[in-house]
């Protein structure tokens, strides 16, 4: 049976994957995103929620969405500790760390390096930030999380990634120009941009972004809010 994999863009760095019927939500930040006012958080019922780190613009809606969906939450150890403090039951929290791979009903997920900082909304230490690689059927999907350009990305170039979700907004993460270099490092032609236009420091020229990716023979997708595409 062929894979049925799609992703829906919910703004900023928040995406909802559908992995053959299993819904996996990344970095839930909707309610406080002025660009995502048309997304109704009460309709989100993922089976799993993955957190790349615990900055508020990646976890603000975690307690609400987890409570209504009873989703299992996966994160690095210290961020997972913060998740438990939000009232999430131990059996609904999957903590793991760099190099670790989760084997889940929809596939496997490996935690990989990201170059950023990490604290929880209350200012506590959140552990290191991270990215994830999703192995679902024959598809390999890299979610970079918030990151600068880093040589560690070269470790992924032999995986033959199908898709890469890369931040392009600059200021807090790498910008569009470094993201082009990152795509080269990881050897992935298909890029979905994230972490741009939400706040004034990360506002970008989307026409320029498409131009620089096209010049590098890369396919950049800038999804509209609520838009879904097949992967």
UniProtKB/TrEMBL annotation:
InterPro entries according to UniProt: Metallo-B-lactamas (IPR001279), RibonucZ/Hydroxyglut_hydro (IPR036866), UPF0173_UPF0282_UlaG_hydrolase (IPR050114)
Domain of life per record: Bacteria
Keyword Signal annotated: no
Start and end residues of each Metallo-beta-lactamase domain: 11-195
Keyword Hydrolase: yes
Alphabetically ordered keywords of this record: Hydrolase
One Gene Ontology term of the molecular function aspect: hydrolase activity
Listed PANTHER family: UPF0173 METAL-DEPENDENT HYDROLASE MJ1163, UPF0173 METAL-DEPENDENT HYDROLASE MJ1163-RELATED
Protein known as: Metal-dependent hydrolase
Organism, scientific name: Sphingobacterium bovistauri
């Amino acid at each position: 049976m062929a894979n049925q994999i799609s992703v829906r863009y919910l703004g900023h760095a928040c995406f909802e994957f559908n992995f053959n019927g299993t819904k996996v939500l990344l970095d839930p930040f909707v309610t406080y995103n002025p660009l995502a006012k048309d997304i109704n958080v009460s309709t989100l019922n993922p089976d799993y929620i993955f957190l790349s780190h615990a900055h508020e613009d990646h976890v603000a809606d975690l307690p609400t969405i987890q409570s209504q969906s009873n989703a299992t939450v996966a994160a690095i150890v210290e961020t997972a500790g913060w998740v438990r403090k939000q009232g999430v039951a131990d059996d609904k929290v999957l903590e793991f760390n760099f190099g670790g791979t989760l084997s889940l009903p929809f596939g496997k997920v490996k935690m990989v390096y990201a170059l950023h900082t990490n604290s929880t909304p209350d200012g506590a230490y959140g552990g290191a930030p991270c990215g994830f690689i999703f192995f679902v059927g024959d598809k390999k999907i890299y979610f970079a999380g918030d990151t600068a350009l880093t040589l560690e990305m070269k470790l992924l170039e032999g995986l033959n990634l199908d898709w890469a979700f890369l931040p392009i907004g600059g200021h807090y993460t790498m910008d569009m120009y470094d993201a082009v270099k990152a795509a080269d490092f990881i050897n992935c032609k298909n890029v979905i941009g994230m972490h741009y236009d939400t706040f004034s420091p990360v506002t970008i020229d989307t026409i320029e972004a498409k131009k620089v990716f096209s010049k590098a023979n890369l396919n950049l997708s800038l999804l509209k809010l609520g838009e879904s595409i097949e992967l």
